Amino acid sequence: GAVVSQHPSRVICKSGTSVKIECRSLDFQATTMFWYRQFPKQSLMLMATSNEGSKATYEQGVEKDKFLINHASLTLSTLTVTSAHPEDSSFYICSASGGQRTYEQYFGPGTRLTVT
Amino acid sequence: QKEVEQDPGPLSVPEGAIVSLNCTYSNSAFQYFMWYRQYSRKGPELLMYTYSSGNKEDGRFTAQVDKSSKYISLFIRDSQPSDSATYLCAMSATGTASKLTFGTGTRLQVTL
Asked: Among A4, A34, A62, B87, which is disulfide-ready with A58 (CB 3.0 to 4.6 Å)?
């Protein structure tokens, strides 16, 4: 199956700082990447959809100036949480689809963000 | 009301039991119905998907969709300890590689 990686797997940062999370498709070209957030005992919630070379489309209620998404290549998308606050602490998961993998989203292992 | 409702469990069954996992939903636009399995500290992995109503079988797994009742199920036969994981239902109006709406996931524990 297709492999999607995320880095880092876990990050702790101080309130007010920014943190970047990387999502890579390792063996296919991902024309579309999705970013999800999951709070404890809650559903994965879609934050934004990004297509390579285009601006991301954000879901209602997600601040685009706070959660910066860049999808500059067919194998890499980044999510930057700017001026992080404790309420941003969550599990962030990306998924990717594209190329010969058009009919399924392949998920990364997730990044646990803790803001102190 | 959430668009997708799923009992979070945990659900504990003995090895060999038949497991029934369910989700209900409210959005009649959903056409694609998926079940994902998620092991601890891993991303979700697609198990099965069904388009519109009906049944689909794959080995020990059977997925059922009843659009008239807005109810979907996943059955696992001859459950194994390796099936212990969180099972998430997900739905989409436009496709499996499009925006997905997830349930909260049901944590399953299969005991020896």
From this structure: A62
C-alpha A61: how far from its chain's center?
A: 16
Tell me the per-residue pLDDT of A38-82, one tens digit each, with 9 for 90 and over.
988 788 999 999 988 888 999 999 999 999 999 889 999 999 999
Q: Which residue among A93, A103, A108 sits closest to B97, beta carbon to beta carbon?
A: A103
- Give the model's confidence band at B43: pLDDT under 50 very low, under 70 low, under 90 confident, else very high: confident
Residue B84's SS3 state is coil
Tell me if residue B64 falls in helix, strand or coil: strand
Helix (H, G, I), strand (E, B) or coil at B83: helix
Nearest-Cα residue of chain B relative to residue A110: B43
A46: chain B residues, CB-CB within 8 Å: 99-101
Cis amide leading into B44 (omega within 30): no
Cα angle A54, A105, A86 (rounded to 5 degrees) comes to 75
